[in-house]
Amino acid sequence: MQFGVPELEDLPDVSGKSVLVRVDFNVPIKDGVIGDDLRIRAALPTLEWLTSHGAKVTCCTHLGRPKGAPDPAFSVAPVRARLAELAPGVELLENLRFNPGETTNDDAFVQELIAGHDLYVNDAFGASHRAHASIVGPPKFLRSAAGRLLAKEVEVLVGLRDDPARPFVAITGGSKVSDKLGVIEALLDIADHLIIGGGMCFTFLSAMGHSIGASLFEAEQVDNCKRLLDSHGDRLHLPTDIVALSPDGKLFSDQGEVRHVGRDVPEGWMGVDIGPESAGTFSDIILEGRTILWNGPMGVFEDPRFEAGTKVVAEAVAESRGFSVIGGGDSAAAVAQFGLASEVDHVSTGGGASLELIEQGDLPGLEALRSAANG
Fold this sequence. Notes:
Blueprint: E1 18-22, E2 29-30, E3 33-34, H1 38-42, H2 44-52, E4 56-60, H3 77-86, E5 91-92, H4 107-114, E6 119-122, H5 133-136, E7 143-146, H6 148-162, E8 168-172, H7 177-190, E9 193-196, H8 201-207, H9 222-232, E10 236-237, E11 242-245, E12 258-261, E13 270-274, H10 276-287, E14 291-295, H11 308-319, E15 323-326, H12 329-337, E16 346-347, H13 351-360, H14 364-370
Parallel strand pairs: 1-4, 1-6, 4-5, 6-7, 8-9, 8-14, 9-10, 14-15, 15-16
Antiparallel strand pairs: 2-3, 11-12, 11-13
């Protein structure tokens, strides 16, 4: 038991028992074909432990965002087929979000889920920041534990939060300051360096008095950015140069002029990546880190014209001799795109969950397991 959360070994003898396992099999599917089965494979250590100890295992997962009713476009059928190949004998229920009771944490749906099951295991780290029925409901009624994946994520992220090797370098990107203000503040309490790129950097640059053209901007966050710059400016690292797209330009096309500018973006132009000088400076800081956490790309890396900043940062994270953690989401997609995932120490399966655990120090799913009916 770690972090006060029971693990598989804390369960009673599972032989002959029916175990409900909440997994996160929210994988990309197009035309019935799974694009990446990483999340399915990540659950295998838990499923193999349970089946090898004689348990009858039934998994449940959400998939996409159906509107609380059955929708063939969000059926788990392709996932069930892949799971049958990887873990024969393990069952998979239909998409949890086909029932509106999942997201509203309805007690009647919880009872429907746990009917016929003796034990519950949560291995869905990527969904454990949500107080949904399948996450927080079953532990009220069944002996419960964290699966291998959930336990590993907690071990890594809580260790990073509470006792990082120093210097600790955090890198955050993405589009909005408002989405990550809480985690930025939490990271500034524990990190030695905080690098900020992506769309959110322009609100900070505006707060410093720079012109940002038509770049992403949140006027209501300027005061918060000024506050953070005033109190933590020596540890906050912002781009010193920008790659910008002309007013007539379009992303994911060849349309428009691309220009390398300083911190001031011309009127009508849009900042879409950090420049090479910034990428080099950020890389130097990262390479000195003993602990590195990265969440959020430096620019619109999905467009090949604007991938350079994110790629340089990804390469520095991979090359670093420090303990490196990718906080899920777009950063995980980036290291995979650049073929660097195997060079990173830990790639989290939950972007939102990893950020909330670092910011809050806990998750609803962990709280539920800690207070489970295990007496």
